[in-house]
Amino acid sequence: MTITTELSDVPDLGDPETFRAGVPYDVYDRLRALPGLVWQPADYGTLTGGFWLVTRYDDVAEVLQDPERFSSRFGSVYPLLNPTGDGPLSMQIVHQDPPEHSRVRRAAAKSFGPRVVANFESWIREVVVQTLDDALRRERFDWVLEVARFIPSRVIAQVLGVPLDRRTYIVDATIEIFKSQSLDDGGATFVEQCMKVGEYLTQLGKEKLLNPADDMTTVLAQSLENGEIDLPEYQLYAVSLLIAGFETTHTTIAHVAHLLATDPAIRSTAARALEEGKAGALVDEFLRYITPAMRFARVATRDTEIGGQAVKQNDVLQVVFSAANRDPSAFPRPNEFDPFRVDPKPAAGTGGAGMVFGAGPHRCIGHVLAKLEIRILLEELLARKVTLSMEGQAVRGASGVVNSLTALPVSVAVG
Amino acid sequence: MSGKSKVVFVRGGHRTEVEVLVGTSAMHAATDNLVGGIVGECGGDLSCATCHVFVDPDWFDRLAPAGADERDMLEATSEEPTEFSRLSCQVPCTAETDGIVLHVPESQ
Q1: In which domain, by residue range, is A209 found?
Q2: Looking at residues A274-302, what average pLDDT do you find?
Q3: For site-directed labelling of B51, which of A91, A261, A358, A361 has its Cα 20 to 30 A away?
Q4: Are B73 and A110 in contact (CB under 8 A)?
Q5: What is the per-residue pLDDT across A148-205, written as a single tens digit (0 to 9) for each?
Q6: Is B17 in contact with B30 (CB distance < 8 Å)?
């Protein structure tokens, strides 16, 4: 017998507007404690009229690590962006399953390895220092606009080798692409926006083949040239790196500042962690606590069972990172910010510090880079003795995918 | 015949010996037994480099040589590879490798 649990008194988690008020952690606590999985009906964006909510840490890890049972082909977020399974986005790395995915991923993976990224430290620090120098000239400003957007966009532009005079264009285009992700049009606008930027990056790739540089566009253009990937894969891969490199890191930087400005306990704990040389653990805890990418989606390739729940072929499963990262069986005292926690769960393939970058073949290729950016920012804020205070309310965006902050009016005291 | 095969992981002077079914990859031998330092991010998809090991020189020649994709991904390891470097997801545990010694990089 198949039992399907639907709850009538929880908010519509398919509606991006639900998240404007905040992340519904209390709802996730309820769902996580129920046996099996909870089903929510949805009018659009799925293949079978709704989605399962996967909220336990181990279940999320299991889904992500088994692409043979839980495919990315139809979409990696809700609403599904490639609902027919064979649209133009089939060539995008996030919609590929092994073995195609593995081939495309390898084309760039080596450029994001820990030894390569470690060499980025000095120029990333320059970007952070310059961004803070510029922003802190004013006593009051919007942290999202002046700092959170600035650092990762400059970093990813440099990683991709986008010339200085095209960087504003790239940031604006990336924001537009991201917005189109939540539209109810089966991915049509998203594809259109991606292709526009993709054409620019194709042009850039041609220039890079003539003048190779130490950047990702050169690496990808060479992979295209020697047939490891084809043109749509090239374009969509480069666009994916842009989106992934910018959006979630900028969200994290916004939340870090919000927490430092509003929570004195977090402020003092963070300072102590840095002083005691626990920068890595501090970054991990900020990431777990914030969970910038809140959830992803997979589609069951056959009738199967997960988390004690029978699911049908083509059912969408939303794997909720925000819920997994507050799972008390993985993180005791989950709602407490504690960079000194001694027993992060050693889950295979997740790095052990939280479900932040995913698990399995699609685990974030840029996780070393993202953590480096956050660590350097925290170090520079501490070194300058920056104290942030709110000057009004933080404004949340409407997104079910990213823990979006769109404005953060702050004032700053230095020294 | 589904025999067993032993793998010895050495990290920072600490030895962990595990026994797995023949055919299991050394990466899974480690992750299934919570051996530290073998992350296996991609799950054996050969698209990350977090299951890097230094094969003990006495054992290295018993393994089939690394393929082009594996050699490529060895550039992305956290620790500098050596001539004895392999990605353990590409090392099957067999009767031949029974007792193989794999050194796990400290920084992984």
Answers
A1: 93-294+327-414
A2: 96
A3: A91
A4: yes
A5: 988 998 899 999 999 989 988 887 888 888 778 777 788 899 889 888 899 999 999 9
A6: no
Q: DSSP string spanning A331-383?
A: SSSTTS--TT-S-----TTSTTS-SSS-SGGGS-TTHHHHHHHHHHHHHHHHH
Looking at the DSSP bridge assignments, the partners of residue A413 are A387
Domain residue limits at B90: 4-103
DSSP A281-320: HHHHHHHHHH-SB-EEEEEESSSEEETTEEE-TT-EEEEE
Name the domain count of chain B.
1
Q: What is the tally of structural domains in chain A?
A: 1
Considering the entire predicted model, what is its pTM? 0.92
Mean pLDDT score, A61-85: 95
CATH number of the domain encompassing residue B61 = 3.10.20.30
pLDDT at A307 over 90: yes
The SS3 assignment for B103 reads strand
Instruction: Write out the residues of chain B at the interface with chain A, using a CB-CB cutoff of 8 A.
Output: 31-32, 34, 36, 39-43, 45-49, 69, 72-73, 75-80, 107
Radius of gyration of chain B (CA): 12
Q: Are A382 and A375 in contact (CB under 8 A)?
A: no
Which residues have C-beta within 8 Å of that of residue A277, sequence separation ≥ 6? none
Residue A259, domain member (yes or no)? yes
Q: How many CB atoms lie within 10 A of CB A239?
A: 24
* Structural domain contains residue A370: yes
> Based on the number of CB atoms within 10 Å of its own CB, is A333 exposed (0-12), middle (13-18) or buried (19 or more)?
exposed
Tokens of B52: 């890097």
State the number of CA atoms in the 13 A half-sphere of A96 facing the CB: 21
Q: Is A51 helix (H, G, I), strand (E, B) or coil?
A: strand
What is residue A80's DSSP assignment?
P
Query: How many angstroms separate the CA of residue B36 from the nearest CA in chain A?
Result: 9
Residue by residue, what is the 3-state secondary structure of A57-72? HHHHHHHHCCCCCEEC
How far is A152 from chain B, CA to nearest CA, in Å? 22
User: Nearest-CA residue of chain A relative to B74?
Assistant: A110
Mean pLDDT score, A88-109: 89
**Which has the closest alpha carbon to A318: A340, A299, A337?**
A299
Contact: A101, B45; criterion CB under 8 Å: yes
d(CA A297, CA A317): 6
How many Cβ contacts (< 8 angstroms) between chains A and B?
70
Average pLDDT over residues A279-299: 96
Helix (H) or strand (E) holding A38: strand A38-41
Of A172, A177, A148, A182, nearest in space to A17 by CA: A182
